[in-house]
Design brief:
single chain, Dodecin subunit-like, Rossmann fold, six-stranded mixed sheet
Length: 393
């Protein structure tokens, strides 16, 4: 019985090991790309021409990989940066390659290669160049944090100087984000709206974000209090801070990230110590939120697919909606799927899995001639399009 169990265990372990190897191999696998390279044959030296043709083919393979990750507009606008920083170090991204065919063609030597390009390093370097922000159309971020510094055991409380907000904003700016001026927000947002946002009203946060041109809103609460009156043998106080924050997409009111963090400081002054403890918690939470936002954007940009909400008002017939869906599903390049969320009265809501900018869909639909009506965009953001159906006269 023990031998049987051992044999079965060995088989199970073998299956698990093979499965793990397959999983790891799949996760680490790069992108296979076929490309042609050319080089002039100078002085009849085909060996040198062949080497140069191979280098040309590998560079083109990397360029193709970048093209699948970066929009054509970004590629055009940032070509010099991409060329100097990415294409100049082709060998760093080519994991392996094989030559499919080669030979002279007149005065040129031609080589066709199949190369495996490592996407992880390529993605990392594109992010490092700041191209991610360009590819997601340089979205603005608005930060609203409610902050209080409490006294002994939280029995008293006072408004702070905005340590949490300033710390998160500094982190965002240093990471290349465009941030809405915090003083402008505080000077114009009403106390009632601010409370609704801070209490978790995502729609209110989204509405305020759009009002200030922010595609992303970071909101939350930070609080510090004395853990004990004093540390034994000193006048120092042990002060602890807790912070919670969430990231909301303005055009859809969806929460795309949520985190909490804590901080602790020993200080003689509870106000200064509280601010330092909140700063520590804010730094932790800012790093985590930025990582989550970048991961979300990277998935949308480099995965070449994202969900876009399309709202259509003024439809007088379901047949009109069917015509729009047909155009999107059958004739719009980059659309992978169209999901109908609702059709109530004259209003329809669609969710589109799309590999490109929302403005491309808005352009496509606004120029289409439908039978008996046309569509006029009234609002276009990176993840939402509002359209109005106008009857033909």
């Amino acid at each position: 019985m023990n031998r049987s169990f051992s044999r079965k265990s060995g088989i199970l372990f073998g299956i698990l090991a093979i499965s793990f190897w397959i999983f790891v191999s799949a996760g680490m696998a790069g992108e296979m790309i076929t490309a042609d390279g050319f080089a002039a044959i100078t002085g009849g030296n085909k060996v040198i021409a062949r080497d140069k043709a191979v280098d040309d083919a590998l560079r083109k393979a990397v360029e193709q990989a970048v093209g699948t990750m970066v929009s054509s507009d970004t590629m055009t606008e940032s070509y010099k940066v991409i060329h100097d920083k990415i294409l100049a170090r082709t060998s760093g991204y080519v994991e392996k390659y094989k030559i499919l065919s080669e030979g002279p063609e007149g005065d040129l030597y031609r080589v066709r290669v199949q190369a495996e390009i490592g996407r992880a390093d390529l993605t990392s370097d594109l992010n490092a160049l700041g191209l991610l922000h360009v590819m997601v159309e340089k979205p603005k971020v608005m930060v609203i944090i409610d902050e209080k510094i409490g006294g002994l055991y939280g029995t008293t409380g006072s408004e702070s100087i905005g340590q949490a907000e300033s710390t998160i904003i500094e982190k965002l700016i240093n990471s290349g984000f465009n941030v809405v001026d915090a003083d402008t927000v505080r000077a114009n947002i009403s106390r009632d709206k601010a409370l609704r946002i801070l209490e978790g009203d995502n729609k209110a946060a989204a509405a305020e974000g759009l009002k200030y041109g922010a595609q992303v809103v970071i909101t939350g609460k930070a609080f510090s209090k004395n853990a004990i009156t004093s540390i034994r043998g000193t006048n120092m106080q042990s002060i602890q801070a807790t912070m919670q924050a969430r990231v909301i997409r303005s055009d859809t009111a969806k929460v795309i990230a949520s985190k909490s963090a804590t901080g602790a400081q020993a200080h003689i002054d509870e106000m200064q110590g509280g601010a330092l403890a909140i700063k520590e918690a804010s730094e932790k939470i800012a790093d985590e939120l930025i990582e989550m936002i970048v991961k979300q954007w990277s998935g949308e940009v480099y995965g070449r697919s994202q969900e876009i909400t399309v709202m259509i008002n003024g439809l007088v017939s379901y047949r009109h909606l069917a015509a729009v869906k047909k155009i999107l599903e059958k004739e719009t390049q980059g659309v992978k799927a169209v999901h109908q969320r609702s059709f109530t009265g004259s209003v329809a809501e669609l969710a589109i899995d799309y590999g490109g900018k929302s403005s491309n869909i808005a352009d496509e639909l606004s120029h289409r001639k439908f039978s008996g009506f046309r569509l006029e965009p009234t609002n276009v953001t990176p993840h939402r399009i509002d359209l109005k159906a106008i009857l033909a006269k």
